Description:
single chain; alpha/beta; Metallo-beta-lactamase, Chain A; 2 domains; seven-stranded parallel beta sheet; 22 strands; 21% strand; globular
Amino acid sequence: MASIKVYGGAGEIGGNKIHLKTEDTSLFLDFGRSFGGEKQYYDNPYLTPRDPEQLQELGLLPDISSLYKNDEEPEIDGVMITHPHLDHWGYCCYLDNDIPLYCGETTKDMILNYEYSGSCAPSKKYYIGNLTKSKGRKVYRDFQTFRTGDKIEFDDLSIEPIHVDHSIPGAYAYIIHTPKETIAYTGDYRLHGPRSDLTEDFIYRAKSAEIDTLITEATNIVGADTRTEKDVRKDLTQIIGETNGLVITNFNNRDIDRLRTAYKAAKINGRKLVISTKQAFLLQEITKDKHLDIFDITNDNILVFSKNRKRTQAWEQEIHEKTKTYNGKELNKIQEQTVLVASYYDMNEIMKINPQPGSTFISSQSEAFDEEGEIQHKRLLNWCEHMGLPQYQAHASGHIGPCQLKNTIKQIQPKKLIPVHTERPNQLKKYISNLKCKIKTPKQTKK
Protein backbone atom coordinates (compact mmCIF):
# COMPACT_ATOMS: atom_id res chain seq x y z
CA MET A 1 0.00 0.00 0.00
CA ALA A 2 1.11 3.57 -0.63
CA SER A 3 2.35 5.61 2.33
CA ILE A 4 0.49 8.90 2.92
CA LYS A 5 1.95 11.41 5.39
CA VAL A 6 0.43 14.84 6.01
CA TYR A 7 3.12 17.46 6.68
CA GLY A 8 0.72 20.39 6.35
CA GLY A 9 -3.05 20.80 6.20
CA ALA A 10 -3.84 18.59 9.21
CA GLY A 11 -6.08 20.51 11.60
CA GLU A 12 -5.44 23.77 9.74
CA ILE A 13 -6.88 25.61 6.77
CA GLY A 14 -4.27 25.56 4.02
CA GLY A 15 -0.58 24.81 4.10
CA ASN A 16 -1.23 21.48 2.35
CA LYS A 17 1.87 19.29 2.07
CA ILE A 18 0.93 15.65 1.58
CA HIS A 19 3.69 13.09 0.96
CA LEU A 20 2.72 10.11 -1.19
CA LYS A 21 5.25 7.30 -1.42
CA THR A 22 5.12 3.96 -3.21
CA GLU A 23 7.93 1.46 -3.71
CA ASP A 24 9.42 3.39 -6.66
CA THR A 25 7.84 6.87 -6.56
CA SER A 26 7.89 9.73 -4.05
CA LEU A 27 5.69 12.79 -4.58
CA PHE A 28 4.24 15.72 -2.68
CA LEU A 29 0.63 16.66 -3.31
CA ASP A 30 0.90 20.45 -2.96
CA PHE A 31 3.62 22.22 -0.98
CA GLY A 32 1.78 25.18 0.48
CA ARG A 33 2.57 28.01 2.80
CA SER A 34 1.17 27.64 6.32
CA PHE A 35 -0.22 31.09 7.13
CA GLY A 36 -1.73 29.97 10.44
CA GLY A 37 1.51 28.32 11.53
CA GLU A 38 3.60 31.34 10.57
CA LYS A 39 1.36 33.68 12.58
CA GLN A 40 2.27 31.77 15.74
CA TYR A 41 5.90 32.89 15.38
CA TYR A 42 6.17 35.72 12.86
CA ASP A 43 4.76 39.20 12.32
CA ASN A 44 4.88 39.97 8.60
CA PRO A 45 6.51 42.24 7.36
CA TYR A 46 8.48 43.02 10.54
CA LEU A 47 9.59 39.48 11.34
CA THR A 48 9.52 36.89 8.54
CA PRO A 49 11.14 33.49 7.83
CA ARG A 50 14.59 33.76 6.25
CA ASP A 51 15.47 30.19 5.33
CA PRO A 52 13.97 26.68 5.32
CA GLU A 53 16.00 25.60 8.36
CA GLN A 54 14.01 27.99 10.56
CA LEU A 55 10.70 26.68 9.23
CA GLN A 56 11.87 23.07 9.65
CA GLU A 57 12.78 23.69 13.29
CA LEU A 58 9.32 25.20 13.89
CA GLY A 59 7.60 22.23 12.26
CA LEU A 60 6.27 24.27 9.34
CA LEU A 61 8.40 22.51 6.71
CA PRO A 62 9.06 18.76 6.47
CA ASP A 63 12.30 17.79 8.21
CA ILE A 64 13.61 16.05 5.09
CA SER A 65 16.97 17.59 4.19
CA SER A 66 17.08 16.26 0.62
CA LEU A 67 14.05 18.41 -0.30
CA TYR A 68 15.92 21.67 -0.07
CA LYS A 69 18.74 23.59 -1.72
CA ASN A 70 21.86 21.71 -0.59
CA ASP A 71 24.36 19.16 -1.87
CA GLU A 72 22.08 16.15 -1.37
CA GLU A 73 20.38 14.38 -4.26
CA PRO A 74 16.61 15.05 -4.08
CA GLU A 75 14.61 11.97 -3.13
CA ILE A 76 11.36 13.47 -4.41
CA ASP A 77 10.17 12.89 -7.98
CA GLY A 78 8.03 16.03 -8.05
CA VAL A 79 5.35 18.22 -6.50
CA MET A 80 1.79 18.01 -7.84
CA ILE A 81 0.33 21.51 -7.36
CA THR A 82 -3.48 21.59 -7.47
CA HIS A 83 -4.03 25.34 -7.95
CA PRO A 84 -2.30 28.74 -7.65
CA HIS A 85 -3.30 29.79 -4.11
CA LEU A 86 -0.23 30.36 -1.92
CA ASP A 87 -1.39 27.92 0.75
CA HIS A 88 -0.92 25.18 -1.86
CA TRP A 89 2.40 26.19 -3.48
CA GLY A 90 3.97 28.99 -1.41
CA TYR A 91 6.78 26.91 0.13
CA CYS A 92 7.93 25.55 -3.25
CA CYS A 93 10.46 28.40 -3.28
CA TYR A 94 12.58 26.48 -0.74
CA LEU A 95 12.69 23.24 -2.73
CA ASP A 96 15.74 22.04 -4.65
CA ASN A 97 15.66 23.39 -8.21
CA ASP A 98 15.94 19.84 -9.59
CA ILE A 99 12.52 18.89 -8.19
CA PRO A 100 9.95 19.45 -10.97
CA LEU A 101 6.68 21.27 -10.29
CA TYR A 102 3.67 19.65 -12.00
CA CYS A 103 0.63 21.89 -12.47
CA GLY A 104 -1.97 23.10 -14.93
CA GLU A 105 -0.93 25.67 -17.52
CA THR A 106 -3.00 28.43 -15.90
CA THR A 107 -1.52 27.63 -12.50
CA LYS A 108 2.00 27.99 -13.90
CA ASP A 109 1.09 31.36 -15.47
CA MET A 110 -0.43 32.63 -12.22
CA ILE A 111 2.47 31.44 -10.05
CA LEU A 112 4.99 33.17 -12.30
CA ASN A 113 2.81 36.28 -12.46
CA TYR A 114 2.90 36.36 -8.65
CA GLU A 115 6.67 36.00 -8.69
CA TYR A 116 7.14 38.71 -11.33
CA SER A 117 5.13 41.24 -9.31
CA GLY A 118 6.34 40.33 -5.82
CA SER A 119 7.95 37.02 -4.87
CA CYS A 120 6.82 34.69 -2.07
CA ALA A 121 10.51 34.01 -1.36
CA PRO A 122 12.49 35.73 1.44
CA SER A 123 15.50 36.44 -0.82
CA LYS A 124 16.76 36.10 -4.40
CA LYS A 125 18.29 32.73 -3.56
CA TYR A 126 14.79 31.24 -3.38
CA TYR A 127 13.09 32.96 -6.31
CA ILE A 128 10.89 30.78 -8.52
CA GLY A 129 10.85 33.49 -11.17
CA ASN A 130 11.80 37.14 -11.53
CA LEU A 131 11.13 40.12 -13.79
CA THR A 132 13.55 43.04 -14.08
CA LYS A 133 13.82 45.99 -16.45
CA SER A 134 17.29 44.93 -17.59
CA LYS A 135 16.88 41.13 -17.93
CA GLY A 136 13.15 40.66 -18.49
CA ARG A 137 11.45 37.43 -17.37
CA LYS A 138 13.47 34.64 -15.78
CA VAL A 139 12.16 31.23 -14.65
CA TYR A 140 14.31 29.20 -12.25
CA ARG A 141 12.18 26.07 -11.87
CA ASP A 142 11.25 23.08 -14.01
CA PHE A 143 7.50 23.41 -14.62
CA GLN A 144 5.74 20.41 -16.16
CA THR A 145 2.24 21.46 -17.25
CA PHE A 146 -0.90 19.51 -18.09
CA ARG A 147 -4.59 19.82 -18.87
CA THR A 148 -7.60 17.59 -18.18
CA GLY A 149 -7.30 14.46 -20.31
CA ASP A 150 -3.55 14.19 -19.84
CA LYS A 151 -1.99 11.39 -17.80
CA ILE A 152 1.24 11.89 -15.85
CA GLU A 153 3.31 8.70 -15.66
CA PHE A 154 5.86 7.87 -12.96
CA ASP A 155 7.75 4.61 -12.34
CA ASP A 156 4.96 2.71 -10.62
CA LEU A 157 2.00 5.09 -10.57
CA SER A 158 0.04 7.37 -12.88
CA ILE A 159 -1.97 10.51 -12.18
CA GLU A 160 -5.08 11.83 -13.92
CA PRO A 161 -5.56 15.58 -13.37
CA ILE A 162 -9.24 16.55 -13.53
CA HIS A 163 -10.50 20.13 -13.46
CA VAL A 164 -12.61 21.36 -10.53
CA ASP A 165 -14.33 24.66 -9.75
CA HIS A 166 -12.69 26.93 -7.17
CA SER A 167 -12.31 30.66 -6.53
CA ILE A 168 -9.26 30.84 -8.78
CA PRO A 169 -8.73 29.56 -12.35
CA GLY A 170 -6.75 26.44 -13.15
CA ALA A 171 -7.79 24.29 -10.15
CA TYR A 172 -7.40 20.51 -10.42
CA ALA A 173 -8.09 17.37 -8.42
CA TYR A 174 -6.06 14.19 -8.92
CA ILE A 175 -6.93 10.53 -9.35
CA ILE A 176 -3.79 8.53 -8.57
CA HIS A 177 -3.39 4.94 -9.72
CA THR A 178 -0.82 2.95 -7.73
CA PRO A 179 -0.05 -0.79 -8.02
CA LYS A 180 -2.26 -1.69 -5.04
CA GLU A 181 -4.82 1.12 -4.62
CA THR A 182 -6.46 4.15 -6.22
CA ILE A 183 -6.27 7.49 -4.41
CA ALA A 184 -8.14 10.73 -5.08
CA TYR A 185 -7.01 14.15 -3.85
CA THR A 186 -9.50 17.00 -4.26
CA GLY A 187 -7.34 20.06 -3.63
CA ASP A 188 -9.84 22.91 -3.05
CA TYR A 189 -13.21 22.63 -4.78
CA ARG A 190 -16.87 23.65 -4.69
CA LEU A 191 -20.24 22.77 -6.22
CA HIS A 192 -21.97 26.16 -6.02
CA GLY A 193 -19.64 28.14 -8.32
CA PRO A 194 -20.16 29.19 -11.95
CA ARG A 195 -18.36 26.06 -13.22
CA SER A 196 -19.87 23.43 -10.96
CA ASP A 197 -19.89 21.16 -14.01
CA LEU A 198 -16.11 20.79 -13.66
CA THR A 199 -16.42 19.50 -10.10
CA GLU A 200 -19.30 17.22 -11.11
CA ASP A 201 -17.03 15.76 -13.80
CA PHE A 202 -14.38 14.97 -11.17
CA ILE A 203 -16.96 13.31 -8.88
CA TYR A 204 -18.23 11.17 -11.76
CA ARG A 205 -14.71 10.07 -12.71
CA ALA A 206 -13.71 9.41 -9.11
CA LYS A 207 -16.81 7.26 -8.60
CA SER A 208 -15.97 5.30 -11.76
CA ALA A 209 -12.37 4.81 -10.59
CA GLU A 210 -13.46 2.96 -7.41
CA ILE A 211 -11.43 5.06 -4.99
CA ASP A 212 -9.73 3.34 -2.05
CA THR A 213 -8.56 6.52 -0.30
CA LEU A 214 -10.10 9.98 -0.71
CA ILE A 215 -8.12 12.97 0.57
CA THR A 216 -10.56 15.88 0.68
CA GLU A 217 -10.68 19.44 1.88
CA ALA A 218 -13.34 20.29 4.50
CA THR A 219 -12.84 24.02 5.01
CA ASN A 220 -16.50 24.90 5.36
CA ILE A 221 -17.56 22.38 7.99
CA VAL A 222 -18.04 25.58 10.05
CA GLY A 223 -19.41 28.90 8.76
CA ALA A 224 -20.59 27.65 5.37
CA ASP A 225 -22.23 30.23 3.10
CA THR A 226 -24.98 29.08 0.75
CA ARG A 227 -24.72 32.03 -1.66
CA THR A 228 -23.63 31.44 -5.24
CA GLU A 229 -21.73 33.66 -7.67
CA LYS A 230 -25.08 34.43 -9.33
CA ASP A 231 -26.35 35.70 -5.96
CA VAL A 232 -23.28 37.92 -5.63
CA ARG A 233 -23.80 39.33 -9.13
CA LYS A 234 -27.44 40.10 -8.32
CA ASP A 235 -26.47 41.81 -5.04
CA LEU A 236 -23.66 43.84 -6.62
CA THR A 237 -25.89 44.93 -9.51
CA GLN A 238 -28.60 46.11 -7.13
CA ILE A 239 -26.26 47.92 -4.72
CA ILE A 240 -24.41 49.67 -7.55
CA GLY A 241 -27.71 50.69 -9.12
CA GLU A 242 -28.90 52.25 -5.86
CA THR A 243 -25.65 54.13 -5.22
CA ASN A 244 -25.21 57.67 -6.54
CA GLY A 245 -21.58 58.11 -5.51
CA LEU A 246 -18.42 56.02 -5.76
CA VAL A 247 -18.78 52.25 -5.31
CA ILE A 248 -15.79 50.50 -3.72
CA THR A 249 -15.58 46.71 -3.55
CA ASN A 250 -12.86 44.44 -2.22
CA PHE A 251 -12.03 40.81 -2.96
CA ASN A 252 -9.01 38.61 -3.54
CA ASN A 253 -7.31 40.06 -6.61
CA ARG A 254 -6.85 36.54 -8.05
CA ASP A 255 -10.53 35.65 -7.79
CA ILE A 256 -11.24 35.96 -11.50
CA ASP A 257 -14.86 34.84 -11.12
CA ARG A 258 -15.49 37.73 -8.71
CA LEU A 259 -13.65 40.15 -10.97
CA ARG A 260 -15.83 39.05 -13.87
CA THR A 261 -18.93 39.42 -11.66
CA ALA A 262 -17.95 42.96 -10.65
CA TYR A 263 -17.25 43.86 -14.28
CA LYS A 264 -20.69 42.68 -15.41
CA ALA A 265 -22.49 44.38 -12.51
CA ALA A 266 -20.69 47.66 -13.25
CA LYS A 267 -21.40 47.43 -16.98
CA ILE A 268 -25.12 46.76 -16.42
CA ASN A 269 -25.26 50.00 -14.44
CA GLY A 270 -23.35 52.00 -17.05
CA ARG A 271 -20.19 52.24 -14.95
CA LYS A 272 -16.55 51.42 -15.64
CA LEU A 273 -14.65 48.96 -13.46
CA VAL A 274 -11.45 50.38 -11.97
CA ILE A 275 -8.78 47.77 -11.21
CA SER A 276 -5.30 48.00 -9.71
CA THR A 277 -2.08 47.80 -11.71
CA LYS A 278 -1.40 44.40 -10.11
CA GLN A 279 -4.77 43.07 -11.28
CA ALA A 280 -4.10 44.52 -14.72
CA PHE A 281 -0.73 42.75 -14.81
CA LEU A 282 -2.42 39.46 -13.95
CA LEU A 283 -5.12 39.92 -16.60
CA GLN A 284 -2.46 40.72 -19.18
CA GLU A 285 -1.04 37.24 -18.57
CA ILE A 286 -4.14 35.08 -18.33
CA THR A 287 -6.15 36.62 -21.20
CA LYS A 288 -3.76 34.66 -23.43
CA ASP A 289 -5.53 31.48 -22.28
CA LYS A 290 -8.40 30.87 -24.70
CA HIS A 291 -10.12 28.64 -22.12
CA LEU A 292 -10.71 31.62 -19.79
CA ASP A 293 -13.58 33.98 -20.54
CA ILE A 294 -12.04 37.21 -19.29
CA PHE A 295 -11.82 40.77 -20.55
CA ASP A 296 -8.66 42.53 -21.72
CA ILE A 297 -7.26 45.53 -19.83
CA THR A 298 -7.61 47.69 -22.96
CA ASN A 299 -11.40 47.16 -22.80
CA ASP A 300 -13.29 50.49 -22.91
CA ASN A 301 -15.15 49.56 -19.71
CA ILE A 302 -11.91 49.06 -17.74
CA LEU A 303 -9.80 51.74 -16.06
CA VAL A 304 -6.51 51.06 -14.27
CA PHE A 305 -5.83 52.77 -10.94
CA SER A 306 -2.19 53.54 -10.20
CA LYS A 307 -0.73 54.63 -6.87
CA ASN A 308 1.66 57.56 -6.94
CA ARG A 309 5.17 56.12 -6.77
CA LYS A 310 8.55 57.75 -7.30
CA ARG A 311 9.88 54.53 -8.83
CA THR A 312 8.05 51.86 -10.78
CA GLN A 313 9.01 48.21 -10.96
CA ALA A 314 9.35 46.32 -14.24
CA TRP A 315 5.86 44.78 -14.06
CA GLU A 316 4.27 48.19 -13.36
CA GLN A 317 6.15 49.74 -16.26
CA GLU A 318 4.63 47.14 -18.60
CA ILE A 319 1.13 48.24 -17.60
CA HIS A 320 1.91 51.95 -17.89
CA GLU A 321 3.22 51.33 -21.41
CA LYS A 322 0.15 49.33 -22.45
CA THR A 323 -2.72 51.42 -21.10
CA LYS A 324 -3.53 54.77 -19.50
CA THR A 325 -3.63 54.74 -15.70
CA TYR A 326 -5.58 57.01 -13.36
CA ASN A 327 -4.61 58.49 -10.00
CA GLY A 328 -6.84 59.43 -7.07
CA LYS A 329 -7.43 63.02 -8.16
CA GLU A 330 -8.54 61.90 -11.62
CA LEU A 331 -10.94 59.31 -10.19
CA ASN A 332 -12.39 61.95 -7.87
CA LYS A 333 -13.95 63.64 -10.90
CA ILE A 334 -15.71 60.51 -12.20
CA GLN A 335 -16.93 58.82 -9.01
CA GLU A 336 -20.51 58.29 -10.19
CA GLN A 337 -19.21 56.57 -13.33
CA THR A 338 -16.98 53.97 -11.67
CA VAL A 339 -16.75 50.89 -9.45
CA LEU A 340 -13.35 50.74 -7.75
CA VAL A 341 -11.78 47.42 -6.76
CA ALA A 342 -9.69 48.20 -3.68
CA SER A 343 -8.78 46.82 -0.25
CA TYR A 344 -7.90 47.85 3.27
CA TYR A 345 -4.33 48.50 2.11
CA ASP A 346 -5.53 51.09 -0.42
CA MET A 347 -7.24 53.36 2.12
CA ASN A 348 -4.57 56.07 1.91
CA GLU A 349 -5.17 56.29 -1.83
CA ILE A 350 -8.96 56.23 -1.41
CA MET A 351 -8.66 59.29 0.83
CA LYS A 352 -7.17 61.09 -2.19
CA ILE A 353 -10.25 60.16 -4.21
CA ASN A 354 -12.35 61.64 -1.37
CA PRO A 355 -15.56 59.61 -1.82
CA GLN A 356 -18.54 61.92 -2.16
CA PRO A 357 -21.68 61.62 0.02
CA GLY A 358 -23.76 58.62 -1.08
CA SER A 359 -20.73 56.42 -1.82
CA THR A 360 -20.70 52.75 -0.74
CA PHE A 361 -18.25 50.02 0.30
CA ILE A 362 -19.04 46.39 -0.62
CA SER A 363 -17.02 43.67 1.10
CA SER A 364 -16.91 40.71 -1.26
CA GLN A 365 -14.60 38.32 0.53
CA SER A 366 -14.71 35.94 3.48
CA GLU A 367 -15.33 37.41 6.91
CA ALA A 368 -12.43 37.40 9.38
CA PHE A 369 -11.81 33.97 10.95
CA ASP A 370 -8.97 34.81 13.40
CA GLU A 371 -8.00 37.54 15.85
CA GLU A 372 -5.66 39.28 13.42
CA GLY A 373 -8.39 39.36 10.77
CA GLU A 374 -10.84 40.78 13.31
CA ILE A 375 -8.42 43.59 14.16
CA GLN A 376 -7.96 44.46 10.48
CA HIS A 377 -11.73 44.34 9.94
CA LYS A 378 -12.25 46.82 12.79
CA ARG A 379 -9.68 49.13 11.21
CA LEU A 380 -11.52 48.86 7.89
CA LEU A 381 -14.78 49.78 9.65
CA ASN A 382 -13.02 52.80 11.16
CA TRP A 383 -11.92 53.93 7.68
CA CYS A 384 -15.44 53.46 6.34
CA GLU A 385 -16.85 55.44 9.26
CA HIS A 386 -14.35 58.25 8.69
CA MET A 387 -15.33 58.52 5.02
CA GLY A 388 -19.05 57.97 5.59
CA LEU A 389 -19.16 54.68 3.66
CA PRO A 390 -21.90 52.19 4.60
CA GLN A 391 -20.71 48.61 4.27
CA TYR A 392 -22.44 45.73 2.50
CA GLN A 393 -21.41 42.05 2.44
CA ALA A 394 -21.74 40.11 -0.84
CA HIS A 395 -19.64 36.96 -1.06
CA ALA A 396 -19.74 33.33 -2.22
CA SER A 397 -17.20 30.86 -0.85
CA GLY A 398 -14.57 29.05 -2.87
CA HIS A 399 -15.07 25.87 -0.84
CA ILE A 400 -17.62 23.07 -0.83
CA GLY A 401 -20.38 23.20 1.80
CA PRO A 402 -21.01 20.45 4.41
CA CYS A 403 -24.13 18.90 2.82
CA GLN A 404 -22.53 18.90 -0.63
CA LEU A 405 -19.33 17.42 0.80
CA LYS A 406 -21.19 14.59 2.52
CA ASN A 407 -23.11 13.85 -0.67
CA THR A 408 -19.84 13.89 -2.67
CA ILE A 409 -18.26 11.35 -0.31
CA LYS A 410 -21.43 9.24 -0.54
CA GLN A 411 -21.24 9.26 -4.34
CA ILE A 412 -17.52 8.45 -4.58
CA GLN A 413 -17.79 5.72 -1.89
CA PRO A 414 -14.13 5.59 -0.81
CA LYS A 415 -13.00 2.86 1.55
CA LYS A 416 -10.99 5.40 3.55
CA LEU A 417 -11.29 9.18 3.98
CA ILE A 418 -8.55 11.62 5.05
CA PRO A 419 -9.88 15.16 5.75
CA VAL A 420 -7.40 18.04 5.32
CA HIS A 421 -7.59 21.83 4.98
CA THR A 422 -9.94 22.11 7.98
CA GLU A 423 -9.55 23.22 11.58
CA ARG A 424 -12.26 20.80 12.75
CA PRO A 425 -11.66 17.33 11.26
CA ASN A 426 -13.34 15.58 14.20
CA GLN A 427 -16.51 17.57 13.60
CA LEU A 428 -16.55 16.28 10.02
CA LYS A 429 -15.80 12.75 11.27
CA LYS A 430 -18.93 12.72 13.42
CA TYR A 431 -21.03 14.43 10.74
CA ILE A 432 -20.34 11.70 8.18
CA SER A 433 -20.00 8.80 10.63
CA ASN A 434 -23.04 7.05 9.14
CA LEU A 435 -21.30 6.66 5.78
CA LYS A 436 -19.61 3.38 4.96
CA CYS A 437 -15.97 4.49 4.96
CA LYS A 438 -13.14 4.48 7.45
CA ILE A 439 -12.30 8.05 8.50
CA LYS A 440 -8.67 8.73 9.38
CA THR A 441 -8.10 12.08 11.06
CA PRO A 442 -4.52 13.01 10.10
CA LYS A 443 -1.89 14.26 12.50
CA GLN A 444 0.79 16.70 11.41
CA THR A 445 4.03 14.89 10.59
CA LYS A 446 7.45 16.52 10.95
CA LYS A 447 9.82 13.77 9.79
